[in-house]
Amino acid sequence: MRIERVRAVPTVSGFYFDDQRAIKEGATQDGFAYDGEPVTQGFDAVREAGEALTVELDLSDGTTVSGDCCAVQYSGAGGRDPLFRAERYRPVVADRVADAFEGRDATKFGTNVADLAAMPGEGEREQLHTAVRYGVSQALLAAAAHANREPRARTLAAHLGTTPATEPVPVFGQSGDDRYANAEKMLIKGVPVLPHGLFNSVEKLGEDGEGLREYVTWIVERATELGDDDYRPRIHLDVYGVLGDVLGAPYDRTAVVDYFQELADAAGEHPIQIEGPMDVGGRAEQIHAMTELRDALADADVDVDLVADEWCNTLADVKAFVDAGAADVVQVKTPDLGGIQRSGEAVKYCEGTDVRAYLGGTCNETVTSARACAHVALATDAAQVLAKPGMGFDEGYMVVENEMRRALARDRTSRTTTATADD
User: Fold this and answer.
1) Quick check: 183 and 195 in contact, CB under 8 A?
2) Beta bridge partner(s), residue 285
3) Helix (H, G, I), strand (E, B) or coil at 121
4) Rounded to an integer, what distance in angstroms lies between the CA atom of residue 23 and that of residue 21?
């Protein structure tokens, strides 16, 4: 089956682009917008409407498959690629990518994504923008799976050499700023990992971290009130490096360890993990700080897991954090990895280590990219997968959970049919 035509259509994403540096440096919320001047290159305002670029592939049997180029909410921060503008990259897909892939065999997923990864970028960039590689690779995976008449998880697992999950991967719900009402929604629905919390400022976290500690106590209380008797969701909170601003280095001193013990005590029987405890400005420095904190918590027998986020963007970054033992969990931020197969490779790299892989991404993706990532989660049997897009929780949870359930049901039917035919 051939790829007959490639199209690029500017579309919208599920959330917004935010200038993280400007927010950390004091930009204040004005309703849903922010007051203040942007400081990250490419931003015209601290908060801007999110953008996506849909890639459509027309196949020789008349079918059209697609993928969405999109980038994280905090584009340009923590070593990431710059702000993604759909109109700027439309000709890259419509011209360069189309020239390279029209007429190709759609079943050759490995060859196609390898050639995509090798395509040079623009100007001083060695590679295409991560968002472009992300969206085009989604479409290539969909094309190969369609040609092979199998779920995308099967196609990707064959490429990676992994054993796919047989049950849905635990979904991690994200609350956005509405961290109380949305957390209650998650608890009512029995979500296994929650609530993210969006603690991206000292104001939310508390001058001494008291806001975070009180929030953990509240989650545990509401879980008991709203959930079944045996419901013990994993508490996962993202602090965007702000906890480091509050506590300060070095991170192995008694005051820091004591604070994490307070969080563990507040969580009680619930496993708890803290994402991005600090942001110290570079990969090597971040690995050092995370390792220092992780070792100190282990020495004190404090049962709080650390999740790597800041400066853990590319496949090489993930490998560096895993090799250094700098985290209990690494977030695989799917748009930042570029090709979707790279996200699968990052999850696979954690196999056989004491580091778990969280297949994450961003609220600023689309339904198309979220459904594609559900197949990556299944193909690699990741530790957890993010509910996305958007920050309303219900919609993203529905998209990811339902895609996994449908894919698993189709796969079971396919394997049962094949086994019956063989008999």
Assistant:
1) yes
2) none
3) coil
4) 5
Q: Both 104 and 193 in a single domain?
A: no
Cβ(403)–Cβ(28) below 8 Å: no
Q: How confident is the model at residue 416 (pLDDT cuts 50, 70, 90)?
A: low
Considering the domain architecture, whether residues 123 and 190 belong to the same structural domain is answered as no
**Is there a single domain that holds both residue 176 and residue 281?**
yes
| Residue 227: strand, helix, or coil | coil
- State which of 106, 138, 160 marks the end of a domain: 160
**What residue has token string 């409407």?**
49
Domain boundary residue among 139, 160, 181?
160
Residues 118 and 229 in one domain: no
- Tokens coding 238: 């993202």
Please give the C-alpha separations between residue 343 and each of 207, 375, 401, in angstroms, as whole numbers. Answer: 36, 11, 19
Q: Would residue 24 show up in a list of annotated catalytic residues for this protein?
A: no
Spatial CA neighbour of 154 closest among 136, 142, 137, 172? 142
Instruction: Look up residue 91 and give its amino acid.
Output: P
Same domain flag for 354 and 405: yes
> What ranges in 240-393 are assigned the alpha helix state H?
242-247, 254-267, 283-299, 315-324, 334-337, 340-349, 367-380
Q: Which two tokens stand for residue 91?
A: 């000709």
Nearest-angstrom CA–CA distance, 50 and 73: 8
pTM listed for this prediction? 0.94
Are both 251 and 341 inside the same structural domain? Answer: yes
Measured CA to CA, the distance from residue 305 to residue 142 in angstroms comes to: 35
Print the domain residue range for 137: 3-160
Residue 193 shares a structural domain with residue 137: no
List of long-range contacts for 115-124, beta carbons under 8 Å, 24+ apart:
116/140, 116/339, 117/338, 117/339, 117/342, 122/92
Which residue has tokens 């993210």? Answer: 196
Model pLDDT for residues 352-411, shown as the tens digit of each residue: 999 999 999 999 999 999 999 999 999 999 999 999 999 999 999 999 999 999 999 998
314-327 pLDDT tens trace: 999 999 999 999 99
Q: Write down the catalytic residue from 24, 185, 333, 348.
A: 333
